[in-house]
Amino acid sequence: MSLKNLQIFQPLNREKNRFVTPLKAPPSALSRHISKSAETLVATTRCGKEIKSRKARSTEQPGSGGLPPLAHNWPDDVSLRSRSRNGSGSSRAGSVDRSTRGSTTNLNSDEDNINVVVRVRPVNDQERSRGEREVLEFPGKGQVICPGTAPGQKHKEDVLEYSGVKRLLEMAVEGFSCTAFCYGQTGSGKTHTLTGPPGLVERGASPFTPEHGLVVRSFVYLFQLIRDRPDCHFVLKASFLEIYNEKVIDLLNPGTVKKPLQVRWSKDSRSFYVENLFTVDCEELDDLFAVLEEGTRNRAVGSHSMNAHSSRSHTVLSVRVRRDVRSERDVTCSTHGKINFVDLAGSEMTKRTHSTGKTLEEANNINKSLMVLGYCIAQLSDGKKKGHIPYRDSKLTKLLADSLAGNGVTLMIACIAPTRSNLSESVNTLRYAARAKKIKSKPIVKIDARDALILSLKREVELLQAENQHLRTALHVHIDYSMDPSGERDMTPRIESNQLHQLGQSELVRLVQLHMAESAALRRENRELFAARDLLLRDHELVTRENERLLKKLEDVNSVCIRSPIIPAQPTYSEASTKEPDVWTNPSVSSANSTTSREKFKT
Ligand SMILES: Nc1ncnc2c1ncn2[C@@H]1O[C@H](COP(=O)(O)OP(=O)(O)OP(=O)(O)O)[C@@H](O)[C@H]1O
Fold this sequence. Notes:
By secondary structure, the chain is α+β, with helices and mostly antiparallel strands. The protein has two domains: 8-447, Kinesin motor domain (Kinesin); 450-542. 36% of the residues lie in helices and 19% in strands. It has helices spanning 48-58, 125-129, 165-174, 190-195, 214-227, 285-298, 350-353, 357-381, 395-405, 423-438, 449-475, 505-563, 573-578, 591-602, and strands spanning 8-9, 30-35, 40-45, 96-99, 112-113, 115-120, 137-140, 143-146, 156-157, 177-183, 233-244, 247-250, 263-266, 271-274, 280-281, 301-304, 307-311, 314-326, 332-343, 408-416, 440-441. Strands 1, 6, 10, 11, 12, 15, 18, 19 and 20 form a nine-stranded mixed beta sheet that branches. Strands 3-2-4 form a three-stranded antiparallel beta sheet, with no helix packed on it. A hairpin with a 4-residue loop joins β13 (263-266) and β14 (271-274). The protein is elongated. The relative contact order is 0.11. Residues 1-109, 150-163 and 575-603 have low confidence and may be disordered. It is found in: Cytoplasm, Cytoskeleton. Belongs to the TRAFAC class myosin-kinesin ATPase superfamily. Kinesin family. Residues 113-439 form the Kinesin motor domain. Its main location: cytoplasm.
């Protein structure tokens, strides 16, 4: 896997503090610069023109669906700002250009990297009142330069790689397990990125309010995707939980505050899950929005000197997408996709946040679980180390295990603050982002085992039928199935695909058994036909050999005849088949032709 989509989220107008459209760069427009001497990694995009045209496409609305466009009211001229100092926008001296031109994301490829994007929030009022200003630099081409915190210190640059949440949603609809998570220090804009400014969701603002974050926009896009697929039947279910002080609380079931939920290991799916988590059927966009609203109201929020609305817990909002689709063999297959939105609580330097008492306890738990997450990311990103990954050391890593290195597709949104006082944390976040980018997962589509079994049996039956038909034609065998004494043929009932889901467990078991019996009968017939063919081939070979033996004998006789002045020789079979039967002339009679004829026989 190589670099794919690179994105930077940046405020369009820092003074007005506006939200920014994510920009999607084409895979072909990416290159990566690595400067080992400065221990830096910089991701760059190559061509502004390409970026613009791709952006125009990425905001295209698939079908009307009665919904306003996703980019509704979003600023247009966005967001990968190039404030190139040297005009070229390339990294500094010593950098090596490792172009990844033409790299694409192949959903069928075995492995996929975690996609990483970076979002830089604007300078906030508190920082402005302290006289702080933005110190991060964006020379263009996807780079962020974090100037050294001390004089003489080398400048740090970190890799910024990005992707779009739209791709994740499209994959979730196809049956992949997807996760978008925000990572960064406290107050860096994680919650803002996902759900917009504080109070917006809780107020129940319309889903089309432009201030909404990625979650609501994703919901809108998800419903657009669903409406664009009238050939499929979709079932959406949502759940919302938080991990507060290492306890899992169902945000849709406040009773669990007193009785936290358990995280268990499923042998079947080979992943962790939360027992007894409440899930809500969501038929409409409003249902999804209601889940978000209810959960956001219930989540733990506190205040400290760096953020008046600081999340004190990690939250996981999951939308499961079941898609029933009629396959080419008239079987209805169900895929089970998922999209998780994870809002991590921010790491805190308690000296800076002045946390005490309850807030301090929360901060310690947050930092501890983030440390385990960081350790897992470091282990996973180091391709050489194949040691133990300590997922079990925190609830957060248990629940993210599959997203980090399992069969899921993951997008990490690294959030950073733009000011000097936050530089060391920003560099840390970018370092983790660069590490996370190296992690590989193996995305797979989850399909119902029952449907997959029926489909594969049907495929096998069809293949066997075709092969048997071919053999029968080749062997000139005619079988009247209505007369089949075994009575095994044609007894599998033809079930309409849309009826499959109405069948009870016992009926389904019977159906599978019938398919298996039909397949077994076909295999038996297939074996018999192959045996008959082998027998015929053997007979044919015997006849051919006998034929050759006789021909040889005839040739021997002929050679004797040629030498005899009184017995006329007979033509060989091959000679006879190619020549007129009685053009043969006895060499003893016609001396003029004798040499030629003899030579002919020898050949
Ligand atoms: N892109 C942005 N545009 C405008 N305001 C922003 C932006 N990002 C963050 N903010 C503001 O900065 C403040 C802190 O942001 P937010 O609460 O999202 O941070 P956080 O990373 O979630 O912090 P914590 O980890 O403490 O929960 C909020 O008031 C938020 O509205």
